[in-house]
Amino acid sequence: MRSRIRGLAPTPILAGFLLTGAALAVLPLVLELSIYTHNLMTLTFLSVAGALAWNWMGGFLGQVSFGHAATFGVGGFVAARIVLWAPVPAPLAWLVGGLVAGVFALGAHPALRLRGPYFSIATIGLGEATRLLFTYWEDFTGGSSGLSLPIETALKHRLYWWGLGLVVLVTAASWLIRRSGLGLQLLAIKADVDAAADLGVSATFYQDLMIALSGAVVGVTGGMWASYFSFIEPNDMFGFDRSIGFVLMAVIGGVGTVLGPLLGAVVFVLLRQYLLASYPQLYLGVYGLLLIFIILFEPLGLTGLLRRLWQRLSALRGKV
Amino acid sequence: MERFIDLALSAVLLAGLYATMAYGLGIIYGVLRVVNLAHGGVIMMGAYMGWVLHRKLGVDPYLSIPIVVAASYLLGVAMYRVLVRHLPRGAAGGPASLLLLFGFWLVLRNGAYLLFTGDDQSITTAWSTSSVVVLGSQLSVSRLAVLAIGSVIPVGLHLFLHRTHLGRAIRAVAQNPDSCTLVGVDVERIYGITFGIGTALAGVAGLLSATLFAFNPGSGSSELLKSFVVVVLGGMGSVPGTGLAALILAVVEVFAILVLPSYLTSAVGFVMLVLVLVIRPGGLFGHRVLG
Questions:
Q1: Which pLDDT belongs to residue A2?
Q2: What pLDDT score does B290 carry?
Q3: Helix, strand or coil for residue B184?
Q4: B75: CATH
Q5: Which listed residue, A317, B30, B132, B141, has the most CB atoms within 10 A of its CB?
Q6: Is A284 in CB contact (< 8 Å) with chain B?
Q7: A289 interfaces chain B, CB cutoff of 8 Å
Q8: Taking 80 as the threshold, does the pLDDT of residue B133 lie above it?
Q9: Mean pLDDT for chain A?
Q10: How far apart are CA B268 and CA B265, in angstroms?
Q11: Range of the domain at B105
Q12: Between chains, do A288 and B107 touch, taking CB under 8 Å as contact?
């Protein structure tokens, strides 16, 4: 077990990751990207960061959350309120939004006593209760008519690099978490909470830590989202569909793997873009079928498929 | 005082519906240890089945109950055979079964959007608007009918589980599937039948709620959550406990109107769910289900 975890990050993957990051960073400077592509990539970065952070809870700890939209919305609205209230630089507002969202996520602490499906269903309840409360709190969120922010085209353009930077940071963090002793402790908690406790791993502490970190990152993406669209509305920001989005991205890519959610988020965003443009009437069903097929045939999603392909290739090479 | 009686009566009437919804989720959990996340989707399907039978074929919603029961039962057996049977059992299967059944729910929703569009629908019959006076309150006939059916179902279910051979087999499997295999009970068959019974109950609940409330392909999530509150509160699998828990939820929801703005009353169920799970995860009367 130990060697498998330690061996998860071989040098070629690390090099490939850094190269891809650098290439993406200079891409808009070298190539004349259309505004559509530029914006689509920005949104993809935000989704990737959110999916990776969801995976800290849902994958590393095995606590599948159907309520992450709550932290996304809190981060988004706190950041938006700060921008409207004082002339602070947007990144500072995102950061504060993320911190508040992280603290807010700790509100789910009592639910951490629950395991498996109970935790998941409690998160549906928490997420929906949060949505209703914030929709009702019109002084803060503007209610159903939402909040409008000043439109800043330059900031929207720069969000590409902010988003990419966040992705690099969160990916690196995923890697470090997985490879460190912390990752092993999380694995132990995921495998058996009681056994982990017997060995002196404080499940409650690590669960709180991960729920706060995960919520904070998702909150930061919520803040960036608000700056990007210059308009946010509680029923969208806190919506159940958004919570489901995080789950889908991680499941498609491979729950619990380091890079899976990254892949899954890219596929999810592109697929959504394509489906909404061409077959909006089949949008939900395609995701439903994808979930069913992944769970039945390849629980590790795209990562699992790639691993199988890799093994097949290595076997072939071995024969030759 | 009059208002109090009004609210109390409407809570009682609502409780029958909640109980029916919850039995469907509870029996599947009790026997298979799987939370049927597609429960809300099946409820929505039941509503549309009743709506189609009424609108296109002119069948009275109460007469279409057997048809809806049979169709939902077959759907449930098929869900078990095609999907649920292939999941890993026990704790490891928890998240997998949730995601799988959630995927099925999305497919159901998409199917309903394609077939019926996203418009709100409801089943209105000749007596939808008629009412009778009980204890000085106006009570709608369809609500009374829903309560009547919602009271017959648990009694029938209780008798079925305790007096018939099949019912005893189901309870035995819920207690210990391995010993059942030893004494010659076909556990796989029992699982399929139980899943079918659970979805049949969900289908009927959908049909009943369609005679009271509007629905669309997206509905089902609040029904799922309410069912879950009731099941947890009632202590998984106990028929009388579930009935009482349904009454508690209905009372709390209905009386919340007095102190909360109407917008927030729908959050009451969610908050109760979390509180119950955290404070009394074993339900008010039942055994602990944690861990």
A1: 46
A2: 30
A3: coil
A4: 1.10.3470
A5: B30
A6: yes
A7: yes
A8: no
A9: 87
A10: 5
A11: 2-279
A12: yes
Instruction: Tell me which chain A residues have a C-beta less than 8 angstroms from the C-beta of B96.
Output: 295, 299
Give the nearest partner residue to A64 out of B95, B221, B264, using CB atoms: B95
Q: Which residue has the tokens 């210059």?
A: A230
pLDDT of residue B286: 53
Residue A155, CA distances (Å) to A158, A168, B135 in order: 5, 20, 65
With CA atoms as reference, the chain A residue closest to B29 would be A117
Which two structure tokens, joined as six digits, stand for A87? 């002339």
Give the one of B96, B103, B269 whose C-beta lies nearest to A288's C-beta. Answer: B103
Query: Is the CB of residue B7 less than 8 Å from the CB of residue B257?
Result: yes
| pLDDT beyond 90 at B220 | no
**Domain-by-domain residue ranges, chain A?**
12-319
Query: Which residues in chain B are contacts of A114 at CB distance < 8 A?
Result: 277-278, 281, 290
- Name the residue among A58, A124, A244 with its Cβ closest to that of B225: A124
Residues facing B121 on adjacent strands: B215
Mean pLDDT of all residues in B98-104: 89
Does residue A98 contact residue A75 with C-beta atoms inside 8 Å?
yes
- Residue at B6 is within a domain: yes
* pLDDT at residue number B274: 74
* Residue B118 with chain A: CB contacts under 8 Å: none
Interatomic CA distance for residues B250 and B245, integer angstroms: 9
Positive or negative CA dihedral for A289, A298, A18, A163? positive
Domain count, chain B: 1
Minimum-distance CB partner of B277 among A111, A194, A290: A111
The rounded distance, in Å, linking the Cα atoms of A127 and A65 is: 9
Q: Which of A62, A114, A289 sits opposite B95 (nearest CB)?
A: A62
**Contact (CB<8Å) B273/A121:** yes
Tell if the CB–CB gap between B99 and A251 is shorter than 8 Å: yes
Domain-located, residue B153:
yes
Radius of gyration (Cα) for chain A, nearest Å? 20
Residues of chain B with Cβ-Cβ distance to A296 below 8 Å are 83, 86, 100
Q: Which candidate, A100, A140, A105, A147, places its Cα nearest to that of A123?
A: A105
- For B257-277, how does the pLDDT look when each residue is reduced to its tens digit (9 = 90+)? 888 877 777 778 777 877 777
Q: Would you call A283 an interface residue with chain B, using a CB distance cutoff of 8 Å?
A: yes
Instruction: Confirm whether B285 is domain-assigned.
Output: no
Residue B236 in domain: yes
How much is the ipTM here? Answer: 0.83
User: Would you state the structure tokens that stand for residue A274, as one six-digit string?
Assistant: 């394509």
Between chains, do A117 and B290 touch, taking CB under 8 Å as contact?
no
H and E: helices and strands count for chain B: 11, 2
Q: Which tokens hold the place of B121?
A: 């629908």
Tell whether A132 lies on the interface with B, counting CB pairs under 8 A.
yes
CB contact under 8 A, B83 and A247: no
